[in-house]
Design a protein that fits this description.
- The chain is of the alpha/beta class.
- It has 22 helices and 34 strands.
- The strands form 8 sheets. The protein has a 7-stranded antiparallel β-sheet. Strands 7-6-11-10-9-8 form a 6-stranded antiparallel β-sheet. Strands 2-1-3-4-5 form a 5-stranded parallel β-sheet, with helices on both faces.
- The longest helix is centred in the middle third of the chain and has 71 residues, at 448-518.
Length: 868
C-alpha cells in the first residue's frame, strides 16, 4: 500500500522535484500546497500520512506555525525542509514535534532515508498510541476498581470503577497518599493495613479475599476484596504499584447465606443424628430412669416425713423451749443428710459478726461451737444463688490430694472439715443467719437432692425462728404495755403533785429574791435567805424530774449537735465522777444533729453518768459513745415498738461496774424503785424513760453482773444541721431590767403567786392589773379597751386555760405582747397553738431576776422566748 504524502513549498520547481523523488520511492503525492493556510486546509481534506513542509512560506504564517496547527487539529506529522539551519530555526521547529528535518539542497538518497525514517516513526507512534488507547480503554472497562501509585504510595491513576466505588475522581486524588484516598478498617472497626505498603516495601504480590472494609469519601463503608502487585520498568526497577479491588457486598451476603445454609444443614444432620441417638438411648435409659425415680420418690417421701416431723415439733415447742426444739431439729436434719455436723450460725448486732448458736455433732465428731464464734462477716466467701430452690448460701470444699478442686478452702479449714455448706435462713435483709452442715472426714460433692433437702429444712427452721421471735416480741410488747400503763398512772399522780408543788415553790423563791434585793450584801440575813432559796431550787429540780418522768414538763426543743453538747459537759462530768474513774468520750466523726430539749437531754446524760459512778465504788471507767444508724438497715428499738425507717442518733454510756442482776432489769425504770437503799430517790431512770418517751426515742439495756452495764439511748436525728454556736456565747444578763410604766394584765389563780408577781413587777416599774380567772381577765381587758402592752397569764386557770385567753386577746390586738407561764400542761395541742400564735413562754418556777429579764425582753421584742 502506497504511503500518501502532501508537499508544501511556495516554489513550484522545488515542490515538483520533491514530488518526483517521492514517486520514485513508491509514495503517492496527494497534492501540493503553496502557503500555510492552504496546507492546513488540504491536510484536513486529504488526510495524508506525511507532510513535507517548507519552513519559509509566503503568506501570513510560516511552515512551523502551519505544522503546529496541523499537528494539533489532525495529528499528521511533518518533515521540515529549509535552507536555513541556524539555532533559532531549529528551536522553533522542535515545538511542532516534526517527524524529520532536512536542509536544502538535498539529494534523493537523503530524502529517501529521511522519509522512510519519518514514516517508520509515524507508524511507530501511531501503533504506540493505538496500543496506549487500547490499554487505557481496557483499563477503563475493567469491572474492578484499579488504583495506581508511584513508589511513595501517591495516587497516579484511578479507573472509573475505582472512582465510583471510592467516591474520589482521579484528578482529585492525584498525588494524595493511598491511605488518604483508600482508608481501610477491619470487621472489628480497627484500622486495616493497605496491601500497597507491603508491595512497595517487599515487591511481592499480595491478595486479600475478605475481612476488610473501605471507608468511602462520603463516610459510607463498603466491604471489598483486594489484591496488589508491583509495577516495574523494562530493567525490572520498581516504579510503582497497582491495587485492584472489587465490591464484596454480594459475595459476603452469598457467603453468609451459604454459611447459614451450611449451618442449617449441619443442624438438621445433627438433629437427625441426635434423634436417632435419643431414641436409642431412651430405650436403654428408661429402666434406669424408673429406678432413679423410685429412689427419688423414696427420698422425697423421707424428706417430707422429716419436714412434717420438724414442723409438728416446732408447733408444739414453747418459746422457753426454743433451744431444745432446735437441737432436736438439727439432729434430725444431720442424720437425714448423713453429715457430721449440723449447726446454726446466727448474726450478731449490726450483722458484722456471726456466732455458732447451736450445734449437733455425730458420734466421735468434736464440737467446734466454742472455737467458731465472733466470725467477721466481711471474711465470708461470696454467696451462690440457686433460683431452682429459691435460696442462697455459701459452699466450701477443701483442696484434694493433689491440691486441686478447692472452693473457699479457708472456710472449710476453719471448720476442720472437708466440705461445708451454709444456706440462708430467710431473706437477706431479714435473715437470722445460716443453717449449716459439715462433712468432716472427706470432701463431699453436694448434689441437687442434698441441696434441695437442706433448702427445705432451712425454710422450716427459718419459719420456726420467726414464730419464736414473734412470740417473744408479743410477750415483750405485753410487758411494755403493762409497764407503760403503770408509768402513765404514776405519771399522772406525779404530774399533779409537781404542778401544785411548783406554785408553792415560786413564792418561796420569789420572796427570797425580793428580800435579797432590799438587803445589803453584808446583812447576816442574806446568807440565811440564800439557803432558803437554794433549798427551794433543789426542790424545784426534784419537781422538774417528776414532770420529766410524767411527760408533763414543757419541752423546749432546739436543733443542736449531740457531740458538741457532750464535749461541753465533759469537764463538769469529770468533776462529778471523781479522780478514780476514767471518763472517755468516743464521739462520731460526723455531726450528730438532734432536735431535743437540751436541758432534758443533759439531765439524761447526768443521771446515767451518776448511776455509772455509783456502780463503781472502787473506780473504773466510763465510755460515752455516739453514732448514727439507718433504721431501714438496722431496726431501732423505740418505746412502744420498733422503728424500721429514718435515721437515729445513738448515745451509749458504758461502765465497768458491778452490773445489774437479770431479775432486776425489768424494774429499774419503775418510779421510786431504787437499788441504792436510802441513798437513792428511785426517779433517775424513770425520769430518763419519760424524757426519751417524750422525744419519741428508745432505750436499750445490756448488763452482765461483775462486767458492767451499757445503756443505749436512741433519738430521731434531725434532718436540719445544727446551728453554729457564736464564739462569744449568749448575751449576759446585766443588772436589773426595769419597766417604764408599761401596763401589764396579770392572770394568775394562785393567790400567793399572783401577789408576788404583781408586787415584783410594780416595784420594777410596771403598772400591773391582776385577775384570777378567764372571765375576770376578759372583763378587765374590755373595761380598759385593751389598753395593755402585755398579757402575762398562767396556762392553767379555774375556768379555762391561758393559751385560749391569749389567743382571744391577740386576735383583738395583734401587736399585744403575750407571755405564758407554766411548769405543767396536759394538752400538747395547746402548746402547738402557742407556737403558731408566737406566744412567749416562761417556765415555772422562776426567780425574780429571770422574771424581770423575760418581761423586759418580750416587751422589747415580740419574738423573744418563743417555744420552738
Amino acid at each position: 500500500m502506497k504511503r500518501r504524502i502532501l508537499v508544501v513549498d511556495d516554489e513550484s520547481i522545488v515542490a515538483h522535484d520533491i514530488s518526483e523523488c517521492l514517486t520514485h520511492m513508491g509514495c503517492e503525492v496527494v497534492g501540493h500546497a503553496l502557503s500555510g493556510p492552504d496546507a492546513i486546509s488540504k491536510a484536513g481534506s486529504l488526510r495524508p500520512d506525511l507532510i513535507m513542509m517548507d519552513i519559509v512560506l509566503q503568506g501570513p504564517m510560516d511552515g512551523v506555525e502551519a505544522a503546529t496547527v496541523i499537528r494539533q487539529r489532525h495529528d499528521i506529522p511533518c518533515v521540515f525542509l529549509t535552507a536555513y539551519s541556524d539555532g533559532a530555526v531549529l528551536a522553533r521547529a522542535k515545538v511542532a514535534a516534526p517527524a524529520g528535518y532536512m536542509v536544502k539542497p538535498f539529494e534523493e538518497a537523503g530524502l529517501r532515508s529521511t522519509v522512510e525514517i519519518a514514516l517508520y516513526k509515524v507508524d511507530l507512534e501511531r501503533a504506540l498510541r493505538e496500543s496506549r488507547e487500547w490499554f487505557l480503554t481496557t483499563l477503563m472497562s475493567i469491572a474492578d476498581g484499579v488504583v495506581a501509585t508511584d513508589t511513595e504510595g501517591r495516587i497516579k491513576f484511578l479507573n472509573p470503577r475505582a472512582e465510583a466505588l471510592s467516591g474520589w475522581m482521579s484528578h482529585e486524588a492525584e498525588k494524595l497518599t493511598v491511605d488518604e484516598v483508600f482508608p481501610l478498617i477491619g470487621d472489628d472497626g480497627t484500622t486495616a493495613k493497605n496491601l500497597l505498603h507491603d508491595v512497595l516495601k517487599e515487591g511481592g504480590t499480595q491478595t486479600r479475599d475478605k475481612g476488610v472494609v473501605l471507608v468511602c469519601r462520603d463516610g459510607s463503608k463498603l466491604p471489598i476484596s483486594d489484591s496488589a502487585a508491583p509495577i516495574r520498568d523494562r530493567e525490572g526497577q520498581l516504579v510503582g504499584a497497582v491495587l485492584i479491588f472489587r465490591d464484596a457486598t454480594e459475595r459476603r451476603r452469598y457467603e453468609q447465606g451459604l454459611q447459614q445454609e451450611h449451618g442449617r444443614l449441619g443442624v438438621l444432620v445433627e438433629e437427625r443424628t441426635n434423634e436417632l441417638q435419643q431414641i436409642n438411648t431412651r430405650l436403654l435409659a428408661e429402666v434406669e430412669e424408673r429406678r432413679r425415680a423410685e429412689r427419688a420418690l423414696a427420698a422425697r417421701v423421707q424428706l417430707e416425713r422429716m419436714l412434717s416431723s420438724l414442723s409438728a415439733q416446732f408447733l408444739a415447742t414453747r418459746p422457753d423451749e426454743t433451744e431444745d426444739g432446735l437441737m432436736q431439729a438439727l439432729a434430725q436434719i444431720g442424720t437425714f443428710l448423713r453429715v457430721d455436723r449440723c449447726y446454726i450460725m446466727q448474726f450478731g448486732p449490726g450483722r458484722k459478726t456471726m456466732d455458732c448458736y447451736l450445734e449437733w455433732c455425730a458420734e466421735e465428731v468434736p464440737s467446734m461451737k466454742e472455737e467458731f464464734t465472733g466470725l467477721e462477716t466481711v471474711v465470708l466467701p461470696e454467696e451462690f444463688e440457686d433460683s431452682q430452690n429459691r435460696t442462697s448460701g455459701i459452699v466450701a470444699f477443701a483442696a484434694g490430694p493433689e491440691g486441686e478442686g478447692a472452693m473457699n478452702a479457708e472456710l472449710a479449714a476453719q471448720r476442720g472439715a472437708g466440705s461445708v455448706l451454709w444456706l440462708r435462713l430467710g431473706e437477706c435483709e431479714s435473715s437470722h443467719g445460716y443453717l449449716c452442715v459439715d462433712s468432716v472426714h472427706a470432701r463431699r460433692e453436694w448434689n441437687m437432692d442434698s441441696l434441695r433437702g437442706l433448702a427445705m429444712a432451712s425454710g422450716v427452721v427459718a419459719t420456726a425462728l420467726r414464730r419464736f421471735e414473734a412470740e417473744r416480741d408479743k410477750v415483750r410488747l405485753q410487758s411494755q404495755l403493762q409497764q407503760s400503763m403503770k408509768m402513765e398512772a404514776v405519771g399522772k399522780l406525779s404530774g399533779g403533785i409537781a404542778h401544785d408543788f411548783n406554785n408553792m415553790l415560786l413564792p418561796i423563791i420569789g420572796y427570797s429574791d425580793m428580800v435579797l434585793l432590799r438587803l445589803p450584801p453584808d446583812d447576816p440575813s442574806v446568807t440565811e435567805l440564800r439557803e432558803v432559796k437554794r433549798a427551794a431550787e433543789r426542790a424545784s429540780a426534784l419537781t422538774r424530774q417528776l414532770l420529766a418522768f410524767s411527760r408533763k414538763q414543757v419541752a423546749r426543743k432546739t436543733v443542736f449537735d449531740l457531740n458538741d453538747n457532750l464535749g461541753n459537759m465533759h469537764r463538769m462530768l469529770a468533776r462529778i465522777i471523781g479522780e478514780d474513774i476514767n471518763l472517755r468520750m468516743e464521739l462520731a466523726q460526723e455531726a450528730v444533729p438532734v432536735k431535743a430539749d437540751q436541758g432534758q437531754l443533759e439531765q439524761v446524760v447526768m443521771n446515767l453518768i451518776i448511776n455509772a459512778r455509783d456502780a463503781m465504788p472502787n473506780g473504773g471507767s466510763i465510755v460515752v459513745r455516739t453514732m448514727l444508724v439507718d433504721a431501714a438497715r438496722y431496726p431501732v428499738p423505740v418505746i412502744g415498738g420498733v422503728a424500721s425507717e429514718g435515721t437515729y442518733a445513738v448515745l451509749s454510756v458504758a461502765d465497768t461496774g458491778c452490773g445489774i442482776a437479770k431479775e432486776l432489769q425489768d424494774r429499774i425504770f419503775e418510779p421510786f424503785y431504787t437499788t441504792k437503799g436510802m441513798e437513792g430517790t428511785g426517779l433517775g431512770l424513770s425520769v430518763i424513760y419519760g424524757i426519751i418517751q417524750e422525744h419519741e426515742g428508745g432505750l436499750q439495756l445490756s448488763s452482765v453482773q461483775g462486767r458492767g452495764t451499757t445503756f443505749h439511748i436512741f433519738l430521731p436525728a434531725s434532718k436540719q444541721p445544727a446551728p453554729v454556736t457564736p464564739a462569744d456565747g449568749d448575751k449576759p444578763v446585766n443588772g436589773h431590767f426595769r419597766g417604764s410604766g408599761q401596763r401589764v394584765l396579770l392572770v394568775e389563780d394562785e393567790e400567793a403567786v399572783n401577789h408576788l408577781v404583781r408586787t415584783a413587777l410594780t416595784q420594777n416599774g410596771y403598772v400591773v392589773t391582776s385577775a384570777a380567772t378567764v372571765k375576770e381577765a376578759r372583763a378587765l381587758f374590755d373595761e380598759s379597751s385593751g389598753q395593755f402592752e402585755m398579757i402575762f397569764s398562767d396556762a392553767v386557770l379555774p375556768d379555762g386555760n391561758g393559751l385560749q385567753l391569749l389567743d382571744v386577746f391577740l386576735t383583738s390586738n395583734p401587736g399585744l405582747r403575750a407571755l405564758l407561764s407554766s411548769g405543767y400542761t396536759d394538752k400538747t395541742s395547746l402548746l402547738e397553738m402557742a407556737r403558731h400564735r408566737r406566744i412567749s413562754f416562761l417556765p415555772k418556777p422562776y426567780s425574780l431576776p429571770v422574771l424581770f429579764q423575760t418581761v423586759a425582753e418580750v416587751m422589747e421584742d415580740q419574738n423573744a422566748h418563743l417555744l420552738d
